[in-house]
Amino acid sequence: MDTLPSAPDAERDLVGAVLYDELAFERAGLKSGDFYIQRWRWVWEACEKIKAADDHIDLETLEKELEKAGRLQEVTSRGGLMDVFVPTLLHVEANARRVREMAERRRIVARNTELVRQAMDTNTPLPMPLAPVKTHWTMEELLKAEFPEPQGPIPGLVPNGLTILGGRPKRGKSWLMLQAGCSLALGGKFLGRDLQLGRVLYYALEDRGKHLQDRSKKLGIDGWAQIEFETRLQPLHLGGMAAIENAVRLGGFSMIVIDTIRRALPGKDFNKDGALFDDVLSRLQTLALEKYIAIVTVLHTRKSTGGFDPDPVDDVLGSTGLTASADMVLALYTEQGKKGATLKGRGRDLDDVDEALQFDPLTCAWQSLGETGAVKIKESEEEILAVLDDLGKAQSHTVAKTLGKDFSNTHKRLATLWTAGKIKKEEIEGKTFYFLPKKTESKEVPTLPTTPTQPTIYHDLW
């Protein structure tokens, strides 16, 4: 069975989309080498040659190009090209993203396969844990020491030590950590971060094997990925901690995920048994720091997180009554029924995390949209442009009132858009009106009132 990552349905549908409308070829932005199925790779290569010759892509030119390359019979041996006709362009970008992601995973496989084989042949854990962290210093040693930058399996997000990920139930935390674990186990990317190949142990205490299988297939995970799953674990205070310590000592893992910490301490309550939870988390942190690995615990919060500027530490630990001194605290903020989310985090030696995420239902993976502030500014500016497109010329007050937004922030966004040349402004009777370029001809230009009894009405003439 071929276990290399691929998306044959997406590849087929892209070819069908191009046959329906050649504009889909440019929209996809793919190279023939991105295709895994040889048949579709040849078709895409033919499309590339047709476009290079400045010709139109259609059924006739495609068949001629394939025939010229001696591949028409092989391509159509299972049916004519019209068999893949898909009369829609709705999913071109999504299918292209899926094909591109699978191509990148195949390149990762090619890059790491030899490394994995060597490790398996020599029975060597991959990667080997680094030396334990020094914990005792004289003053002379401390002053002379050179401390490396904080390290961890997921740069800037999950350091070596203890990380706690919290959020409301059923909002995507397990999807996020499964995606992170599998990305690390493949040596791929996670939320735009390049990861070194590492072994992962995932305690999926809320899942069964079938559920994990379904999720892994949806994520397109390969069989050789260096990740292992456990769906059972003795309570951490009744022998489970020893099992984790043994796994750390013998397994050569870069990251261990416990999903969730409540299931690892069944029957215990965060508030009533807070001392027990704190003790367990403290032991996990000590173990992780001593062995120079990352341990991530997932927990459900009951508190309604959110607000103007939510604090991940307060929302995660405060909502549970925990006082654990984790090395990183992450909180996933989502709104039920919406794809978007915000990932916030605060750690000891890392910069604060504040990223806008979006869940892609096609790949079943979270995607980073960038820093939350930048994304919100972009969304705000897009809203302003849409309002000006509708109003024509308008003052800052009108734009803010139409959007239901704060006047000061709206005024700043308008000034930024004007500086960037995206909008224009005009002074009329000492008042500033903003408008979109190339819209003045289609909108009425305000004129000065001719008599006091017939005033001209402007937008927001306050």
Give descriptors for this structure.
462 residues; alpha/beta; DNAb Helicase, Chain A; Rossmann fold; Arc Repressor Mutant, subunit A; 3 domains; nine-stranded mixed sheet; two-stranded antiparallel sheet; 16 helices; 13 strands; 16% strand; disordered C terminus
As a percent range, the share of strand residues is 15-25%
The CATH architecture classification of the largest domain is 3-Layer(aba) Sandwich
Strand-pairing-aware structural class = alpha/beta
Task: Estimate the global geometry from the Cα principal axes.
Answer: globular
Cα distance spanning the termini: 72 Å
The average pLDDT score comes to 79
Residue share in helix: 40-55%
Q: Considering the protein shown, what is the CATH homologous superfamily of the largest domain?
A: P-loop containing nucleotide triphosphate hydrolases
Classified by CATH, the class of the largest domain is Alpha Beta
Strand order of the largest sheet: 5-4-6-7-1-8-9-10-11
Radius of gyration over alpha carbons? 28 Å
Based on the structure, what is the oligomeric state of the protein chains? Answer: single chain
Figure out the total of helices: 16
Could you tell me the CATH topology label of the largest domain.
Rossmann fold
Low-confidence stretches: 128-132, 439-462
The number of distinct β-strands equals 13
The number of domains is 3
Describe the largest sheet. Answer: 9 strands, mixed
List the secondary-structure elements in sequence, H or E. HHHHHHHEHEEEHEHEHHEHEEEEHHHEE
